[in-house]
Structures are given as C-alpha cells and as structure tokens.
C-alpha cells in the first residue's frame, strides 16, 4: 500500500456492487474522463491523451460503471483497510506530525452504483468536472456519506483524529 501524501498519493473511497473499499493511489487515476481532461490541454496545443494515462488506466480513457471491475482489479494492490489507515494516522500524530494530518483526509468518493463522484481534493484541480456523461460530479465534504465502519479517522474511543 502507498503511504498517503498530501495532494499526491490520495485516499479514495469506492462503492461498487454495494461494497465499500478505500484505496491509496496516485491522484491522476481519479480523473474519470481522461478524454475531457486532455481536451483542455489539446485546445492549448499541448500533448495528446496518451500522455496522461496511467498504466492502471490503459484502455480505460473513461472510467465508468461499465469498466469499473477491470479498473478495480488493476488497483487491487492499492487497497487500504480501515485498521491499517487508522494505525498509520495514529502513528503520524504520535510522531507530532499533526500538520500532516491532511495527508489522511479522504480526497474522493466514487460510487459506481449510483454514478456519483465526490471530491474534497485540497488543491485546485476540479476532478469533479471530469466525470462520464450521465454522472454527477460534486465538490463537497462527503464524509457523512461514509459508513461508520469505514471511517478510518475515528479511533477506538470514537474521537476523530482530525480534531485531536
């Protein structure tokens, strides 16, 4: 599993076939519609779409419910379990790295079942604008949508580590 790093290696939640899973991946994987994303650059005479595609997204220029299974198989090694994320987060706080707590803020929630994409990505990148047609992309705090059992930032005493 990758270590979360602010605005680089991001934590994304995925709902697929009613199953929830966290992943820690390179942020670039979460531009669901690479075609639309690349067009912004090509209009300025820059590089072609192939320049942006990560190996995990090869042949999946538009990530949607139809090809989610293939993509999720490819990123299986990036799965992150709640106890692991909680321990990493607690260790970081114990080391006095509170300012690095932002490393552990979830960036994305992709619900392939409902065709919704939520972003809380902390830098100006507008991931939510690059969703497949028929999807809803929103920039908002989605933590209330996460099942209680998946809130890795809540310790055994029920306290949010973001508020410690």
- Extract low-pLDDT stretches: none
Overall tally of structural domains: 1
Shape: globular
Measured distance between first and last alpha carbons: 25 Å
Rg measurement, Å? 16 Å
Q: What share of the residues does DSSP label as strand, in percent?
A: 15-25%
Q: Give the overall pLDDT as a whole number.
A: 89
Largest sheet: 6 strands, mixed
Number of helices: 3
Helix content: 10-25%
For the biggest β-sheet, the strand order reads 3-2-1-4-5-6
Order of helices and strands: EEHHEHEEE
Number of strands: 6
Structural class estimated from helices and strands: alpha/beta
Question: How would you summarize this macromolecular structure in one to three sentences?
Answer:
This protein is an alpha/beta fold. Helices cover 18% and strands 20% of the residues. The protein has a 6-stranded mixed sheet with strand order 3-2-1-4-5-6.
Question: Can you put this structure into words, describing what you see?
Answer:
It is built from three helices and six strands. With 164 residues, the chain is of the alpha/beta class. It has one domain (9-163). Strands 3-2-1-4-5-6 form a six-stranded mixed β-sheet. The longest helix is centred in the middle third of the chain and has 13 residues, at 82-94. It starts with 8 loop residues before the first strand and ends in a 25-residue tail after the last strand. The model has no long low-confidence stretch (mean pLDDT 89).
List keywords for this structure.
3 helices; about 160 residues; 6-stranded mixed sheet; alpha/beta
